[in-house]
Amino acid sequence: MSELKVGARAPAFTLTDQRGEKVRLSGFKGTRVVVYFYPKADTPGCTTQSCSLRDATQDLKKLKAVVLGISPDAPAQQKKFDDKYGLGFALLADEDHKVADQWGVWGEKSMYGKKYLGIVRSAFVVDEQGKIAGAFYKVSPKATVERVTEALRSLG
Length: 156
Fold this sequence. Notes:
By secondary structure, this protein is α+β, with helices and mostly antiparallel strands. It has one domain: Glutaredoxin (3-Layer(aba) Sandwich), CATH 3.40.30.10. It is built from five helices and nine strands, in the order βββααβαβαββββα. It has helices at residues 44-55, 57-62, 75-85, 98-102, 144-154; strands spanning 14-17, 22-24, 32-37, 65-71, 90-93, 106-111, 114-119, 122-126, 132-137. A seven-stranded mixed β-sheet has the order 2-1-5-4-3-8-9. A two-stranded antiparallel ribbon has the order 6-7. β8 (122-126) and β9 form a beta hairpin. The chain is globular. The model has no long low-confidence stretch (mean pLDDT 95).
């Protein structure tokens, strides 16, 4: 797992959202983007993280940012998650975890002593030029909004 550093070019991606539409990171050129990776839709930590970003949407818009969530869940699962919590932003399906690999968030985890591979909860801020302005690996669900807000404010 190779972590992205501030100043690096954000790896390009095209993924399917919860409505079955293709979303390209390059489609947001000139806009700040909060990209967050979460392990599984509708689990406690992922719900906390996603709902906190939903609740901060207006503040993030004032900082000229949009939100994209990415997990290995299929688009249908993402849609159920969005419908249940009214998240209101694109949830992208990275079912083969290729994008997670590129962003350095697919790695070894452990639960109850058992090791396995999965998404390491992370959040990023991508600036208007497509560069990483903030990289937060192993971010807690409750700290995500605070971390990305700090990075967005530092952009001016």
